[in-house]
C-alpha cells in the first residue's frame, strides 16, 4: 500500500497542527481527517455549546477509538521478524500493564499477523483472511496491532471491534519499515559520501542555537504574553482566523519572532556544504527566519514551506511589498495598513462620500460597496498561518521533481508534527534511506538512523568523520564528541560534547 494518499488526494494542503495525533500522524488521510475533525471538535466544544448531537456522538466515539489506538501506542516490533529480548520484555509489560493477559496475542503472534498484513497489503483482505474465517476474534487481533480494547466496547459483539481493527491495520500498513541494512555510523558516512540528491527537511531546532525561539514551544516567553489576550496556545497567534479578526495580537508579538540576526548556525552551514558538494537536492524548511538564504542556500534549492518575512501582502487586495517595508510597524507593534487600497479609497473621494454614506443609512448604500470598506487592508507577512495553504512551489517541487531523484533524506531539528510537511517523507519512495538528527527521538516515523543531540554538534561530528571542512565560528576547533549507541537500539546514537 502506498502511503501517498494524504498528499495526492488532498488538494488543499493547508497547514495543520497534527500534534495531538502523534501516533497516528503517519496515517492515511481518512484517519487524519477524522482525527483532525476530532481536534476541531474539541476546540469548538470549549468555545461554544454543541450544535449537533449526532456529530457529537461520532466525534465522541472517534475520540475513544483514538485513545485506544494510543493505548498500546507505538511500540515498534523488530522489522524482519527477529525478536530481541527487549521486544519480548516490552510486549509483556505492555500487555500486562493494560490487563490484556490472557486475551492478547503473544509477541510471536503479533509479529506474524503484522507480517501477514504487510504481505497481503490490503486491510479488507487481511481482515477477511483472519477474522473472516473465524481464525481469531477482531478483539484479539486488535492487540496484535498495538490496540488496547477500550472499556466502552467491553461486552460488545466482536463486530464492534471492526473499525478499531481497521484503524490499527491501516496504521501498520502506512508505516514505513526501517531499512535494516543501515545501522552503523560507518553506514551513515557511506550514505553521505555516495548520495548526490539529498533532501534536507529542517525545523526550528536548527535556529535555536542562535537564540531564535521555537514559537511552537510552550516554554518560550511568547506564551505568557499570549495568555493576556485570552489565547491558550501560542500557535493561535498563527491562526489565520484569529489574525483576520484581531491582527493586533500578531503585531504585538511579531517583534519577538522577527528575524533579528543575519547569523546562521553550523547546521545551516552544513546544508550549504552539501550544496557546495553538489549533494543537495532540496532543503524544505519550516522556518520563517530566512537564514537559509543568509547561509547561501540557492533559491532553486530552497522551499520555505511556511513562507518567510521576505515579503508581505495585503489581506484585502493582495498588494505585495518587500518585507522590510513593514518591519518598522512590526517592531513597534503597530498594525501595518495597505498603501494600495488606502490610496484607491482616497481616489474614490472618500472624504466627500464617507460622511454622506454614514448619514444616509438605507437603500442606496447597499449598491456602493466600496463605501463599506472601513479602512485599508491589513498587511500580513508572507508566512503561512495555520489554516492557510502552503506555497504551490512546495507541492510541485516535491511531486514533479524531487520524488524521482531523491537518494537520501535527512530530517534535522523538527519533530515533524505540522502537516503537510510531516507527510513529505511518507510520500517519498520507502526504499530511500532516512536519517534523523534532533535532540529527542520521534515515535511516529521509523527512521533508518537516529542521531540524537544538538544538531550543530551532530553535523560537526559527521563532517569531522567525513573529513569535510565545516567551518563555523560556533564550532570550537578542538571540539571532542562522544558518540554512543543507545541501549537496546541498533541504529540510534547519542552525541555529547566532551567537556
Ligand atoms: Zn490592499
Automatic annotation (TrEMBL):
The active site is at 306 (proton acceptor). Residues 34-46 have a biased composition (Basic and acidic residues). Residues 47-58, 364-373 have a biased composition (Acidic residues). Residues 178-469 form the Deacetylase sirtuin-type domain. Residues 25-58, 341-374 are annotated as: Disordered. GO terms for cellular component: nucleus. Its cofactor is Zn(2+). Zn(2+) binds at residues 314, 317, 338, 341. Keywords: Metal-binding, NAD, Transferase, Zinc. GO terms for molecular function: histone H4K16 deacetylase activity, NAD-dependent; metal ion binding; NAD+ binding. Signal peptide: none annotated. The keyword Cytoplasm does not apply. Residues 344-359 have a biased composition (Basic residues). It holds the Pfam family SIR2. The keyword Signal does not apply. InterPro entries: DHS-like_NAD/FAD-binding_dom, NAD-dep_sirtuin_deacylases, Sirtuin, Sirtuin_cat_small_dom_sf, Ssirtuin_cat_dom. Belongs to the sirtuin family. Class I subfamily. This is Deacetylase sirtuin-type domain-containing protein. It comes from Glutinoglossum americanum.
